[in-house]
Design goal:
The protein has about 425 residues and is α/β, with parallel strands linked by helices. The longest helix has 22 residues. Strand 8 and strand 9 form a beta hairpin. The chain has two domains: about 325 residues, ANL, N-terminal domain (Rossmann fold, 3-Layer(aba) Sandwich), CATH 3.40.50; about 100 residues, ANL, C-terminal domain (GMP Synthetase, Chain A, domain 3, 2-Layer Sandwich), CATH 3.30.300.30. The radius of gyration is 22 Å and the shape is globular. It has an eleven-stranded mixed sheet. The structure holds 5'-O-[hydroxy(phenylacetyl)phosphoryl]adenosine. The site of 5'-O-[hydroxy(phenylacetyl)phosphoryl]adenosine has 21 residues, from strand 7, strand 8 and strand 12.
């Protein structure tokens, strides 16, 4: 039987949803125009006024916001309300040189937690569950977001934060956790540690995981599901639009339902900005329909994916987005070929290797080099013979996927650094030289 947290929105007819969106959009554009000088200027430059926006059909008339705008307006330039009405900030780690600081009113926090609660219920959560939140707490949105969602559903919430993996497993056993929330790379590490501790999935009570904040492949999903004995659900979001819960997966596991009563989604051509029809692959753009404190309109995420309104067996009518393949700025161009790290991950897991890998790109004598280090499992290591032949075979499997040959290094177990949050699996040394 399917359960919903807010069926009136999650299962609304398309006409009902459109009416909600139209009404909210008109109000939100006025709110932004009146309160956010930075965006008002962009609208004025484009010659658009709030009166031009009468429904979702007029959305395309509004200007885009980009990460560069966020940098320009940092920290208060995109605030939509008085600072005294704000109760919280969250922020990104800023590892790629950008730091996003997002502001929330109490209402914003409340709606954000509702979005996360929808995800918890879609993963089978009820007030009988014990939900272990092992996303980082603090400025990162993962911990606070899922914590709030889990509370709203009435789960017993374990605010573990990430790290201290053996203790995570001990708590999991002692308190009979049934749902785990963390990044997929940390889930894989927890699965590996469980095994190292001489335990199996039968020794824990987990039934579901809610994993997101980074790209992960279907192959990785299957690995995690096996190592923890669970069903693994994807969850997506970004600090700019609140955090996790912009979209979430249901039992069908064929893409994530976007909470489109709060976030209006478009797909555009990243080069021209042209809005593309449903089913086309392109850059995801979000307009937040309710946010008071940080109300971004037509925000370009740089995430590449596809939208679909195909009927879903779970009964939800919310539009779905495919797993993002990675951000357009994560794409590597190696010897002129476009490479997404997820393509390499797919090959590695298909060939029976682990998710512990590192991609290094460099430039030698004006030619790009691609090195892929892959950790062997203890079993593979114990029976390892003819490593050179195995490296060659893996290199040609990657070549047939990408069209370019990497240098593959099969390395001993536990030699690559494990991740407790978002995994760093790519080092582009070319950027360091520039
Ligand atoms: O990662 C929010 C979040 C926390 C989502 C916990 C899910 C779970 P940021 O740190 O601002 O926010 O990073 C946002 O991470 O633009 C995507 O590129 C990537 N991302 C997030 N979720 C997924 C996912 C959080 N499920 C950026 N699959 C986004 C692929 C994801 N990429």
């Amino acid at each position: 039987m399917q359960n919903y947290y807010q069926p009136e929105f999650e299962c609304a007819s398309q006409d009902e949803m459109r009416a909600i969106q139209n009404e909210k959009l008109v109000k939100q554009v006025k709110h932004v125009y009146e309160n956010v000088e930075y965006y008002r200027k962009l609208m004025d430059e484009k010659g658009v006024t709030p009166d031009d926006i009468k429904s979702v059909d007029d959305l395309h008339k509004l200007p885009f916001l980009t990460k560069a705008d966020l940098r320009d307006a940092y920290p208060y330039g995109l605030l939509g309300t008085d600072l005294k009405n704000c109760v919280r900030i969250q922020s990104t780690s800023g590892t790629t040189g950008r730091r996003v600081v997002a502001f929330y009113t109490q209402k914003d926090v409340d709606l954000w937690e509702d979005c996360c609660a929808r995800a918890v219920v879609a993963a089978g959560g009820t007030n009988e569950d014990v939900c272990q939140v092992a996303y980082g707490y603090g400025l990162f949105t993962g911990g606070p977001g899922l914590n709030g969602g889990s509370h709203k559903v009435g789960c017993l919430t374990l605010p573990m934060s990430s790290g201290n993996t053996e203790r995570q497993i001990q708590f999991m056993q002692d308190l009979h956790s049934t749902i785990l929330c963390c990044t997929p790379s940390y889930a894989a590490f927890i699965g590996e540690t469980l095994k190292d501790m001489g335990l199996t999935p039968d020794d824990i009570d987990l039934k579901a995981g809610i994993f997101g904040a980074e790209p992960w492949t279907e192959e990785m999903r299957r690995d995690i599901e096996k190592s923890l004995g669970i069903k693994a659900y994807d969850i997506y979001g970004l600090t700019e639009t609140t955090g996790p819960g912009v979209s979430f997966e249901c039992s069908e596991q064929t893409g994530m339902h976007i909470n489109e009563d709060h976030f209006l989604a478009e797909i555009i051509d990243p080069d021209t900005g042209e809005v593309l029809p449903e089913g086309s692959k392109g850059e995801l753009v979000f307009t937040s329909l309710d946010k008071e404190a940080f109300p971004l309109l037509r925000y370009r995420t740089r995430d590449i994916c596809v939208l679909s309104r195909k009927k879903c067996s779970c009964g939800r009518t919310l539009i779905k987005m495919s797993k993002p393949m990675g951000r357009s700025d994560d794409m590597l161009i190696i010897r002129g070929v476009n490479v997404f790290p997820s393509q390499i991950e797919t090959v590695l897991l298909k060939e029976g290797y682990s998710v512990n890998y590192l991609i290094e790109v460099d430039r030698e004598r004006n030619t790009d080099t691609l090195d892929v280090s892959v950790e062997l499992t203890p079993e593979q290591f114990a029976e390892a013979n003819d490593i050179a032949a195995k490296e060659k075979a893996l290199s040609s499997a990657i070549k047939s996927m990408l069209g370019i040959s990497p240098k593959v290094h099969l390395v001993a177990p536990k030699t690559l650094t494990r991740s407790e949050g978002k995994a760093v699996r790519v080092i582009d040394k070319r950027k360091l030289h520039d």
